[in-house]
Design brief:
The protein is α+β, with helices and mostly antiparallel strands. The chain has four domains: 89 residues; 88 residues, 2-Layer Sandwich (Beta-Lactamase), CATH 3.30.450; 74 residues, no CATH class; 144 residues, Heat Shock Protein 90, CATH 3.30.565.10. 53% of the residues lie in helices and 18% in strands. The strands form four sheets. The chain has a five-stranded antiparallel sheet with strand order 2-1-5-4-3. The protein has a five-stranded mixed sheet with strand order 11-13-14-16-15, covered by helices on one side. The longest helix has 72 residues. The protein starts with a helix and ends in a 9-residue tail after the last strand.
Amino acid sequence: MSLRLNIILSIMIAALLPMLILGLNIQETTTQELEKQYEQRVDDLTDHAFIELEQTRYNLEQKLAVISESANTDFNFEILEFCDDNRLKNTLEFFEVTNIHGEVSYPVDNDQNLHTQNSKRRFLRSLRDTEHGFGLTKLDDQLFLVKVDSIANYFIVGGVTIDNKFLENLVGNSGLEATIVGNGFTLSSSSELENVFAHASQNNLSDPGLGVLSHEKYLVESVPFPSLKVAKPPLLAGSLIITQNRSNWFSLVSELTNQIVFTFAIAMLAIFVAGYIISGRVSQPLRDLTLKADKLDLDKLEMHFSESGNQETKALATVLNQMILRLRNSSQAIIEAERRATLGDMARQINHDVRNGFLPIRNVLNHLSQLVDGNPDEFVKVFNERKTTLDAGIEYLEELASSYAKVSGKPELEQCNLNQIIYETVDGIRQVEINTSAESVVIADPMSLRRIIQNLVKNGVQHLPESGGVVTVATSEKDSSAVITISDNGCGMNQETIDQIFNHFFTTRKKGSGLGLSIVKRLVNDCNGSINVQSEPGKGSTFSVSIPLPAGENSDG
C-alpha cells in the first residue's frame, strides 16, 4: 500500500470515526426525543378526543336538563302539547317520553302491547342504573348515545346518533382514528380499521385493540363506551379505541436518518478530497526522491538530490547525498577487491582443469613405466595403443589454454560425438567402466563436455571405498536429449550435502578445492543442458547430465 493511500486512509479514519460515533449518538438521541414528543402529541390529541366525547355527553345532559326544568314549571300533563311546544327536543336525534308503566307517551305509538311495555321498563331501569344515566342503544340498525331524566311520573330519554360522521367529528383533522367496537357492531372513522375490527366483537371487548392491532404499527388507547360502569341489557356495551398510525413517525425517523447519512457522505467526500490534497503535498517530494533514487547505479555516482521542501524531505535528501558520497569513496576499493577475487577464482579453476588434464597422461606414463620395468617387449605395442590417449590429453591441454586465453562468455556450440569424447576422456582410468548404448551426436562445446565428464568421473573415483568400487559411465537418449549417467557405489550423500554440492568452494574432502562440481554446473548451463543428482548415504551417487540432440532427432527413450 502506497504512502499516499496510507495517509488518505489515516485521515479518513481519524476524522470519520468520531463523526460516525457522533452521528449515531445524534441519531439515537434525536430519535428518542422525537419519539417522546410524538407520543406526547398523540396523547394530547387523544385526550382532546376524549374531551370532545365528554362535551357531547355534557351537551346531551344539559339539553335534557333544560327540558326537565321547563316541564317542572309549564308541564300540564298534556304530553303531546308540551312536546310539540318544546322546540329544544328538535336538536336531539332521539327523543322519547315514557311513563312509569313503560308506555310510550311521545311519540305516539298505537301498537304498544305488554311485551313492548316490559321491554321499555327494562330499558329505563338499565339506563337509570348506569353512571350518570347514560347508555348505548340500537334502534333500527342505528346506534344512539342516550340519557334519561324524569318529569313527575314520566321519563324523558334524549340521544345523539353514533355513526361514522360522529367519530370523524370526534377526532377532527388530528390524524387520529376513532373506532367503537361492541357486541355485534363496529363503527370507525377509518374504513380500513372498520374492516380490521369487524370480528373484534367476538374477542375480549375490554381492550380489543391489544389483540387486533400491532403496536409496532399503531399507538392505541382504549376506554369503555359510553361509561366506566358495565351496562346491563338491553343497553349495549362497547369500547372506544383511539389509534394513531405510526407510518408518519417512521417516515420522520427515515428522513432524519437519510439526512444524517447524506451529511456523513458529504463529509466523507470532503475529507477524502482534503486527504488527497494533503497526501499529495506530503508524498510528492518523496515520490520524486524515489524516482531519482531508482536511477542510482554504482557506475553512475554523480547524482545529487535536491535538499529542499519540508524538513523531513530535506533530511532524507541529505542522508541520500551522504550515502552517494560514501558509495563513491568505496566503489573503487570494491571493484579492486572483486577483480582480485575473480583472478583468484580463475587461478584455482585453471589449476583444477590443468591437473585434470594431466590425469590421463599420468595414467598412460605410469602404465608405460610398469612395462619398462616388468615387460619391455610389450612397450612398443602398448605405447601405440595408448598413444591416442596421450595425444587426446595433450590436445585437451592445448584447447584448454586457448579457451582461457580467450576469456570470453559462453563457448560456441557444435555437433560432436558423445561416445568418442567419453572414451578419449576416461579410457584407461582404473575403477571406471564405460557402457554406451547409442552413437549420440549432441550440440555442445567438446571442451566443456570433456571437462564435465572428467570432473564427474574424478569426483566419483575420489568417493569410492578403499576396499574397491567402480564408477560407471553410461549414455542413453530421452526427450530430444542425450543423457550421460555417471554412477558410483561410494559413500553417498545426505540431502543437506546434495543442496550445497554445486556451490563454490563447498567440499566434503579435507584436501578438496570445492570447485569441481560448481565448474560442472556452469559448463552444463553453457551447453544448454541440465544436471540432476540422486544419492543416499552408504549407497553411492548418480549424476545425470542431459545435453540437447540436434533438431529433428527425437528418441524413444
